Amino acid sequence: MKIHEYQAKALLAQYGIAVPRGDVAYTAAEAKKIAAEIGVRAVVKAQVYAGGRGKAGGIKTVNSPEEAEKAAGQLIGTRLVTHQTGPQGVPVSKVLVEEASNVARELYISILVDGVSHLPVMMASEAGGMEIEEVAQSTPEKILKSYIDPAISFQPFQGRKMAYGISLNGGQMGEATRLMTNLYRLFMDKDCSLAEINPLVVTADGKLLALDAKLNFDDNALYRHKDIQELQDKEQEEPLEIQARDWGINNYVKMDGDIGCMVNGAGLAMAVNDLIQYCGGRAANFLDIGTLNNTERVVNSFKMFVADHRIRAVLVNIFGGMARVDVIAKGIVEAYQLMTIPFPVVIRLAGTNLEEGQHILAQSGMNFIQAKDFYDGARKVVEAAKGVTR
Amino acid sequence: MSILVDEDTKLLVQGITGSEGTFHTRRCIEYGTKVVAGVTPGKGGSRHLGVSVFNTVEKAMTDTGANASIMFVPPAYAADGILEAIDAGMALILCITEGIPVLDMVKVHRYLKGKPTRLIGPNCPGVMSPGKCKAGIMVGEIHLPGNVGVVSRSGTLTYDVVSQLTSLRIGQSTCVGIGGDALPGSTFVDVLKLFEADEHTKAVVLIGEIGGTMEQEAAEFIRHKMTKPVVAFVAGSTAPPGKRMGHAGAIITGSAAKASEKIKALSQAGATIAPTPAEVGLTVKKVLKSV
Questions:
Q1: Which of A108, A184, A252, A336 is catalytic?
Q2: Exposed/middle/buried for A226, CB within 10 Å: 0-12, 13-18, 19+?
Q3: Do A80 and A112 reside in the same domain of the chain?
Q4: Which residue of A332, B57, B91, B185 has the smallest Cβ count within 10 Å?
């Protein structure tokens, strides 16, 4: 799960990490008021779940409360298109207004879990303000890594090693080590999947300040962090994905094609989407129906397909293991009874309780195209979608 | 021969009395797997599906000689269940549970260091040695005993691949689901090592997907250590970056996590890439013919 920069900074501040003075504004008038309270040069930053805001015009430096009002007015209510958002952009409904800083140096610091060592790893770099992926590719030697043993947690010597490594001076050592220790504490306490301060700046008077902050959280751990769950801004997410989650379909990702897919299992669902493309079509979604054995999720998947007007044909591909084919078949029949299905449906079933499932579909008298394997299913659904208009 | 599980496997089921535990334990027993014990704290002393239930893993192991454990414990308690089994000295743990927090698994991996336990999963279908032992949730009937090893990050895609193999009369030595999480207990390399050492396995099918760098590590192993042919498929060529595709570990966060990069690494290391997921069986057939 993602959260906004202003929320991430509030959490950093709770953990004793210095952030610029400022507040979030939902209107231009509020932005003006906050800028007046700050009383010096300020920055107005669009709050969206996407990077690349600066280049996209989502961050404006202002010299007066009036300029802050104007900048906020230009951002709030628009959609910001960055290289991470796609052409439709993301809505801006609030801005962070904060004190502009006198930046002497831009550094980078982050924590994530390393998949190879299975340990939290802290990364630091002198190449702050850039995308770390680019730094990792062009100049990997500029990224310092410190693996953290969760049994003894982050140690001061690691802090010193990293801090000297990014050329902080002796006077900044205590502050830097405290900051790193606090960031690790936050990372562990809140089940973060990423805690990133980029840039971490050294101000003209030698202080460390988190100028931007990104915190992502482990979805699987949200059950034990109600406070974090409440920070979610649904407006920033794809409406179809929100709709899917509300209907109990947790593994749904919108894609840009016109063929709806309902599959059990994430690997199989990805493979089906790949195969559809191989056959000359494009999937409208990734949908892993999961293993819960009730018909409701199947019916809701069809509701999604009917509501999604891009869809011109649907492929159901189920290989029953934990999920049972007969239950899925029952769900499809229920969906056909509940709503008018305005597109052809191709069905491929295999696995646990296959015969019962086939029997249910045959008995129902419903109109569908049967596929013998998933290649056959992909070919047939691409063919079936041709010429269908909605 | 086979790897990890066989006719000598004495299986313990952690979470045997839950609904999924019950459903799949029954299927394992029907397949012929020796299920010797179950563990559900608070239900020790009772019997379930004809199997003795214990309060702790330690007691279950002492009384029954169980040498492998399969876990159906809910995600919030699963890491604790794994730790309990490691502490009891269990040789093999198969964790089916999906949705365990990553930092819980960090703890588990830390505790595993230096211990003799091998962990498969979490978020996996388990391990199947056809004709000998089904220790997992896979469909038993689609398997056929034989000489091809299968290792995969996916559950249902593996079922599909296995049924392709079986319909071509290509049997399997063992099918291992290493799971879809970001921090799996065993990696492709861990399982490839076992297949390479297993004299009965003649070729290996590897089913990877987007996210992480496990396929690249497997490629290095294949290049330098593997003498047996490997057929590979990597799912997620059409997956958009930054989106979690169902599995916790299936997310493109950097270029190495893309399917195309993984396919390139595996292909350059000498693995034969199946052109589509529907042609893995046929690709194996061709490769076996040329050996």
A1: A108
A2: exposed
A3: no
A4: B91
